[in-house]
Amino acid sequence: MPGNVGAMRGTVDWLESPHPIGHELPALFQDDEIAQAFTSGLDVVLAPVYLTLDAIECYVDPWLAPTDFLTWIGEWVSAEYDEALPEQRQRALVARSAELLGWAGTPRGLADMVELLAGVRPTIEDSGGASWSATPGEGELPGSATPSVTVKVRVEDLPPKGPARDDRLERVRQVVVRHLPAHVPATVEVTPA
Length: 193
Description:
By secondary structure, this protein is mainly α. Helices cover about 45% and strands about 10% of the residues.
């Protein structure tokens, strides 16, 4: 995550182990100061492990995980990492990535991905279609034989004219290109309200 380059987990000064090793030793060593001092040093190292294991569900929940775990969790579900995204949008992307993989290649999947990565909800028009018939060869096939996708973004969903609008449209174009098959040409249009 942004700002966490080089962040590491380690000991926590005030954290006490819920299971001190010294208390588990045979009675002979429970009164031995050297054995207790030695095991208390190990308790300091093991206390964060106990804390992590006791709260493991928080480490794998994208809404609760520490920010340095978020990209790691995202790798499990093929979430795209983008440093430019705000943390909450990155968390939403990781949380929805498994669902989005199921919608990959569909207008809904593309619209959801554009919304998460670019911050605008587009309207998607594609050349495909599907139909069914009880009689083979009956009826016209929907769609067009030439593949194409048109992504329409409403002008009111964009920042005012200027560099911010250009950046947002470029981000939409990048998302569309990354999530469409290479043989499908795409057009991004800005539509009036």
